[in-house]
Amino acid sequence: MNTLLNPEPSFSLIPSIRITKTHYLTRRRLQASRQFSSTDGNRLIGRRIRLTVKADLDSALIDQLGLKESDIINPAISSSYRSSKLPKPNQTLLEAQAKVCTGPTQTRPLREDEAFKVLDTILRSAKGDLKDEEEVSKAQLGAFFSAMTIRANAFPEATQWSEGERRAMNTFWPLLMRALSPDVIFIADPEGSIMGGGGSIGPHYSGNDPREMRLVGALREVLAGGHLGYEEVQGVLRDVLPLQLDNKAPGVSESLLSAFLIGQRMNRETDRELKAYCLAFDDELGPPPVADVKSLTHYGEPYDGNTRFFRSTLFVAAVRSCYGESCLLHGAEWMPPKGGVTEEQMLKFMGASTNLSVLQAKELLEDEEIGFAYVSLREARPSLYSLIGLREHIKKRPPVATSEKVQQFVRAQGREAIVAGFYHEGYEEPLLMLMKRRGVHSGLVVKGEEGALSMTTRLRSVNASKGLPVNYCSGFRSLNVESTFEGDGVSRQSFNLEVNASNYGFEPTNTPRTDRSVSKNIELGLAALRGEKGPTYDRIVLNAGMVDHLLGCDGAEDVSVAMDRAREAIDSGKALKRLLNYIKISHKLK
């Protein structure tokens, strides 16, 4: 194959390009602005979506007016897709969680004044005296005290409690002991050894029912910095999920569950723990349907979306479907912590149905005029979907944020591949391990912009952060020829490289900004699919052609041929036509 291994990166400082955000302020204006207009006969585009800007509301004006984006009912920005039914977390504690609910080297101990403020907020909330803020939720208490306990028990000295945190805890703990519930006291001091005084609640706590008993037993190991077996993790997850969101039936303590989830992430999950999260609910709705397609790529974008840069995968899927590379996208309408632009928001904004079952997705994959589909986590895995509210209150990403990217909601009769995005170095190998466990023919992880899948044509800056660069790719392809056999008996070719777009003829350009604007992301993508050349067009071509090449797809052995094939799918109007067909046909499925 013509794969370029580890091409030398180029370095340049590129001035930033400012793109003003445009937003629709009301649903009435939105509906008036979304127009479908027919064109003559067999024109290349056939049908087009015209997005007319009715009002401008950029970030500077929002700040000037003292507004929060989350308070603006505006379907053109990603924050408006957060369900109003979800209770909001306490911001004081959430800011503290962002510092302490993370890994052994990333944790930032609280200053003394911060620790006093946080514990005072917790105490006033527990006593019902918190009048000027959202109350501290059980999930927040579980996550915060789980982090404090793991830091005390298992973290290196630099990220253990600061002297200020210790003084604050010594001051407030006697008061908190009288105000907090037993489950939270257990999380804060499971063995009665952290806070001093030999408290008896933690050592003797066992939970309120058999489900909590299993969870408490597993949590003791997690709070000590330990790890669990595959069956133990799966047993806990299946016991406690889905969460009872309507409060009609008693559910497991949210403080215990949030402590468990963030604790496993802080301890850095083992392969067997991640496999348990990945596979726990595969049979929740029965076996997946099998689509009659020759090739199917499962796209594992981060579910919490993009907040800054253009998100290309929806448009890439429309391109790749034109030449027989079927694509299945999955995700959620809105997901913390970022709450950014997602494929579901874009499809919903354009008028497509986003409530498709996996069987309906199979039909769209098999449709010769479409060839791609999107499945919401809400429809495919209700148990995992029930965690969205809890995840917002945990603040940091739990293990399921990694495992949900490696799913097969529909299978294929032909070859299958999985592509997933990542940001934090060290998660590329676990993601590839999960893909191999899924049994796909090819797997690819991409460090795209914002940890998403979009590779960029931007030159690498001399001020780039340490670690793996943007456009780093790693993966494997299954082979039918003699090669090195891995532990599972499958012959694979592994690879890793940094994709330098200039090596493939692309001019260096800054990535278009969208800044949480759903409408701007759509506007850019549709303009590119109409054949408008520029940075967005180049990114769609690059990501379609490079994925084809790296996955070993038919006809993509030569990367330049793969890029030309993607360009032809756009320039001919076929890709845009398929996207518009999807919007239309998605409502007609039974």
From TrEMBL:
Superkingdom field: Eukaryota
Keyword Glycosyltransferase: yes
Keywords: Glycosyltransferase, Transferase
Name of the protein: Anthranilate phosphoribosyltransferase
